[in-house]
Structure prediction request, 289 residues.
Amino acid sequence: MTTEAVLVVGAALFGIGVFGALSQQSFVMLMMGIELMINGSLLVLVAMWARAAGGSPDGQMLAIVFMTVMAVEMSLGFALITGVYRVRRADITEKLRKLKG
Amino acid sequence: MTGALIDLSFAAFSLVAIVAGVRVFRTDSMVRAAFYLLASFAATGGIMVLLGAEFLGMVLILMMAGEMLVMAIVMVMYMMNPAGLNPMVMVHQPRTAVVAGVIAFLAIAGVGLSGEVPSRPAPDPAAATAELGRELLGNSMLVFQTAGVTLLATMVGAIAIAAPRGRHGDAAEGSEEPGLQPDEEASA
Prediction:
């Protein structure tokens, strides 16, 4: 397991996430794309911590911050989906022609 | 674990992570998509454990298991066709998205492969986890607490956004979508 191989796997996850976030119409699927992107960057971060940072705990701290970002993104995303659905009955991006409420 | 076993596990985890990641956007059922994403996250957590970040890997798996169950429930609540009874194609600009994804992959992988990664490996997993624990409640306590307060604020905000009634009445009031011809309303 070379470091480079892990970096390539992380890049692949990020690329899949970019595809999903740009192509999906459903809000939740779009969020899945964003999750995959964060997942890929988290993997790269952990790989660099494990192989190149000399075991400094700061790298793991940064990973914990990443995970917090993931949780914040998910919960606010679900709240926004609920709010938009209540007001507009919309579950896909195409149903939202304007952002103004 | 011996080197060959680690390599084998890494190959298996990577395969699962990437294939499940692709399947997320290639399946007919949104609930299944949530579970494919969970598989992808679990495999990523496995790679992290292999890398020696045992605590982070397990936390990722646990966190994502809960998150994906919530996601599956949200799917069933709001989305059409959650069970995958009909074929589902819900994409826009697929070609642009594929190109962007491939470019992102090539760019990041290119940077990763062309750069020189210094070889300063972390200590063994148990020592690294113990160090993380000391860091969490020592030098980086402010970061840790800030993350906690951020999560609290997120919870409050999420409830405020999702609540059916705001403090001043119905949340939907004044924000109903106008009719198909907005001009009618203006002239009437």
